[in-house]
Request: fold
Amino acid sequence: HLNFEVKYYVENPSQLLDEQTRWLFFLQTWKKIVNGSLPTSPQTCCLLTSYYLQATFGPISSEGEDLINISNLESVPIVVKENTPVILELRGLLKEQSIERAQTNFLDHVRRVELYGVDLHPVKDGKGKLIQLGISGRNLSIYRSSNNVRINSFAWCKILRLFYKKKRFFIQLQHEKFEEYDTVVGFVLPTKRAAKLLWKNCIEQHSFFR
Reply:
């Protein structure tokens, strides 16, 4: 089947001029929250859910109606089911907020989530440790696989070359003034196809945002 999804995540989606484009960003980021590919803290998830409900169903008229709205969603993050009273309280605070304003607030908050707009690829470093390499419009970043904490990043302006050979992917970094040679950082992927896909996605992101 064919999926129609956002490919390039702009830094501030709430300022997109086209209404339909903003709506697609809204739907796509919510989908990523629901399926777990955009992890958030419980507090942030509850806040974003309240904005999502406000932008989708409009102002709350009763707690009973909102419980029905939540149950009618195709799927919701587990943290939402565990914190329904918090969601209802937040919805009460948003009762005067328009649908358009709620959508804008959702986008303005979701862009601050650490992994917003980051395309993650599982790789192994030079020591054979499993990590994740994240591609975004800003840079290439390295994340711990266990908790998605960023441990390093490479700005696009510092990257001279990206290339792959068989299952290995390489980043050639511009040397600093005190260094004599450029630095090349290598990673190992599960297959040659995965290495090529990582390289392709890096080139596309860099070309689009540079």
Observations:
- The longest helix spans residues 192-209.
- The first strand starts at residue 119 and ends at 124.
- The radius of gyration is 20 Å.
- The chain has a mean pLDDT of 88.
